[in-house]
Specification:
5-stranded mixed sheet; 5 strands; Conserved Hypothetical Protein Mth637, Chain: A; single chain; alpha+beta
C-alpha cells in the first residue's frame, strides 16, 4: 500500500504532558485527540501536534504535513497510508 491519507485531529494545547489517543466528535468526523504542552501561539501547538503524531505513528516528522486548520484546534494532517491502522487504533482507545 502506498500513498497518503487525511487524519482529522483535535489539538488540546497547554496540557501537562503530551498524549496521543482518544476520539473527539469533530466537524470532519471522528478526530484523533492530541494533547500537547505547547501554548496555542505562533503555531507552536500545531508544530508540537505534528511531531507528536509522527512519533505516535512511528514515521518521520517530515512525513506528516498540515493540510488544513493552522489556527484551529480542529486540524487535518496528511500522513502515509501505511499508518492507517495505527491511526484507528489510537483513535479508538480511551484517552490516557
Amino acid at each position: 500500500m502506498s500513498g497518503e491519507i487525511t487524519v482529522a485531529v483535535r489539538v488540546k494545547p497547554g496540557a501537562s504532558r503530551t498524549r496521543v489517543g482518544g476520539c473527539h466528535p469533530g466537524p470532519r468526523g471522528p478526530a484523533l485527540v492530541i494533547a500537547v504542552t505547547a501554548p496555542p501561539v505562533g503555531g507552536r501547538a500545531t508544530e508540537a501536534a505534528r511531531r507528536a503524531l509522527a512519533d505516535a505513528l512511528a514515521v518521520r516528522p517530515a512525513a506528516v504535513t498540515l493540510h488544513r486548520g493552522s489556527t484551529s484546534r480542529d486540524k487535518l494532517f496528511i500522513v502515509p497510508s501505511e499508518a492507517a491502522d495505527r491511526v484507528r487504533a489510537l483513535r479508538d482507545r480511551p484517552p490516557p
